[in-house]
Amino acid sequence: MSTLLAIFRIGAFFAAGPILGATFITGPVRAGLALIMALIIQPLIPAVPAIDPLSIQMLVVIGQEIMMGVAMAFVVQLLFQMFVLAGQAIAMQAGLGFANMVDPSNGVSVPVVSQFYLMMVTLLWLTLGGHLVMIQVLVDSFTVQPIGNIQNLVQGMALLPELGSWLFAGALLIALPAIAAMLIVNLAFGIMTRTAPQLNVFALGFPFTLLCGLLAMYIGLDGFLPRFEVFAAEALGYVREVMSGRDG
């Protein structure tokens, strides 16, 4: 019984989380991985009291497990979407907002800057072993958040709305250097337009702004890894808070 219920939490985590939750990974693949993982960690899952499989109580417990898996995966998704949002802000300021491409993980069109940041975050996440840490956290969740413990689930879900400020603050912090550089460039062209109205600011300003935006992105890559490590550590901390139902 415990293995069967664990599949729902693990499967929901895989379906809602990054990488494995991408649209190009089919449902049977995620379901198979959830089944394999549930069988492997079965000795670590606390025993669950006997529940009638056809009862309303079983449906409630299944819903709780799905919500728990989705909540934990949602926090990790916020980490990835933080860099996507930062890329969108930079693209709009640098004149690259019109250059969109399809994001294979979500199936929507995003600016190329966001897609570039998303690919870097994904590679860093895998390189630093973030997927292994999340598997460990998922295994620990069955001990910290036992199957059917609705009190901790409600407390953990209540923490999710508070992460919206973390998402936007982190995205602004990532994009702030490039946005500040673009602001200085735009102010400079504004002064040039006032002092020399005969200059064609549209023909001259757009390529120069684009070049400065790419240069600002290149310079900003020097601090990309430290920022990612800080935000990844914060995301894992939030995952544990949601998992345990405690604030801090």
Summary tags:
mainly alpha
Indicate the overall shape. Answer: elongated
From the alpha carbons, calculate the radius of gyration and give it in angstroms.
22 Å
Tell me the strand order in the biggest sheet. 1-2
Domains, number: 1
What integer is the average pLDDT?
81
Helix and strand succession? HHHEEHHHHHH
> Count the strands?
2
Distance between the termini: 32 Å
Poorly predicted parts:
none
Count helical runs: 9
Sheet of most strands: 2 strands, antiparallel
Proportion of residues in helical segments: over 70%
* Structural class computed from helices and strand pairing: mainly alpha
Query: Into which percentage range does the β-strand content fall?
Result: under 5%
Family: Belongs to the FliR/MopE/SpaR family.
Subcellular location: Cell membrane; Bacterial flagellum basal body
Pfam families: Bac_export_1 (PF01311)
Membrane topology: Multi-pass membrane protein
